[in-house]
């Protein structure tokens, strides 16, 4: 399978590329940053520019598409609403129309943040109520995909893992601060259900292989606070969890509004795939093994000059 993967240099994109290569697939990535040593083709395109998505399809001639590119920084979305609308709301519809025209499977990556977090335990049937510019534009992107290509898959996700920069995920942030012995804060009033990016990548490949369609929550079946996640990571790596101080997100001075309870049910996807989804505990253990085995360095080698 030749997989067109947008956002290939992002946290999910780079780990999905790795997992797809291990599974024997051919990757054509789209990213704004070069990957000189990547063992796959990378198209250096700015997808915010009109016509770039069509050019990517023309050059890649894909058998399937995963659209993971987005403006995912919540604070940046508040500061640059026009760019957020372009990348998160408009572009997904364009990608979906191109995939529909080509007749190839499309998996569009959305977010758990489309909900307001007032109660949690959300299913795919619950009405979204986004709080931030990021969440509003991502919800608009979901709907654009569903209009343009009803057979596409939309996955609402939350994930962590090793990135090219080493600074893209919450897990890396906790790890870096713990390694340096710095004190940090963890939110006790923000709950989520994160998957390891590699586990999410494997689920995405299974979704494509089984030709699913529709809206699914692709998250850990077990959830926890961000503070508890940091403590669990510290214990997994053998660091002192006392370096993580309990805090409230209300005191963080953030611009974008955050939902407090983004616990989502993933039963629908587990039933469709015929197997339970990995938990955050599974992911954290694998994240630690990856560190011990040098996986972050192998990924980052793709970014080194040729």
Structure write-up:
The structure is a single chain. By secondary structure, this protein is an alpha/beta fold. Helix content is 42%, strand content 17%. The chain has helices at residues 11-22, 52-60, 74-79, 81-102, 133-148, 170-179, 197-209, 226-237, 267-273, 280-292, 295-301, and strands at residues 2-6, 26-31, 41-44, 64-67, 106-111, 153-157, 159-160, 184-187, 191-192, 195-196, 214-218, 224-225, 244-247. A seven-stranded parallel sheet has the order 3-2-1-4-5-6-11, with helices on both faces. A two-stranded parallel ribbon has the order 7-10. Helix 1 (11-22) links the parallel strand 1 (2-6) and strand 2. The model has no long low-confidence stretch (mean pLDDT 96).
How would you briefly describe this protein structure?
By secondary structure, this protein is of the alpha/beta class. The protein has helices at 11-22, 52-60, 74-79, 81-102, 133-148, 170-179, 197-209, 226-237, 267-273, 280-292, 295-301, and strands at 2-6, 26-31, 41-44, 64-67, 106-111, 153-157, 159-160, 184-187, 191-192, 195-196, 214-218, 224-225, 244-247. The chain has a single domain (2-164, 193-223, 263-301), classed as NAD(P)-binding Rossmann-like Domain (Rossmann fold).
């Amino acid at each position: 399978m030749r997989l067109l993967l947008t956002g290939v240099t992002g946290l999910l994109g780079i780990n999905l590329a790795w997992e797809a290569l291990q599974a024997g697939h051919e990757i054509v990535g789209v990213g704004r940053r070069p990957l000189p040593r990547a063992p796959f083709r990378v198209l250096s395109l700015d997808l915010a520019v009109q016509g770039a998505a069509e050019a990517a399809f023309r050059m890649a001639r894909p058998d399937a598409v995963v659209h993971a590119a987005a403006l995912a920084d919540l604070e940046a979305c508040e500061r640059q609403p026009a760019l957020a609308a372009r990348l998160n709301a408009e572009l997904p519809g364009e990608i979906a129309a191109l995939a529909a025209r080509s007749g190839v499977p499309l998996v569009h990556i959305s977010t758990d943040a489309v909900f307001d977090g007032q109660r949690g335990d959300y299913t795919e049937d619950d009405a979204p109520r986004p709080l931030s510019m990021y969440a509003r534009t991502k919800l608009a992107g979901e709907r654009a995909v569903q209009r343009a290509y009803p057979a596409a898959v939309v996955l609402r996700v939350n994930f962590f893992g090793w990135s090219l920069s080493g600074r893209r995920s919450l897990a890396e942030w906790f790890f870096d601060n713990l390694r340096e012995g710095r004190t940090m804060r963890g939110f006790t009033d923000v709950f989520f259900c994160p998957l390891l990016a590699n586990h999410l990548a494997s689920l995405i490949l299974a979704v494509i292989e089984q030709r699913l369609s529709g809206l699914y929550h692709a998250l850990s079946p077990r959830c926890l606070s961000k503070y508890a996640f940091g403590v669990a990571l510290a214990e997994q790596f053998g660091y002192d969890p006392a370096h993580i101080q309990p805090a409230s997100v209300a005191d963080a001075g953030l611009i974008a509004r955050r939902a407090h309870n983004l616990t989502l049910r993933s039963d629908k996807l587990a039933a469709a795939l015929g197997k339970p989804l990995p938990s955050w505990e599974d992911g954290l253990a694998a994240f630690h093994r990856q560190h011990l085995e040098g996986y972050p360095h192998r990924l980052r080698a793709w970014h080194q000059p040729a």
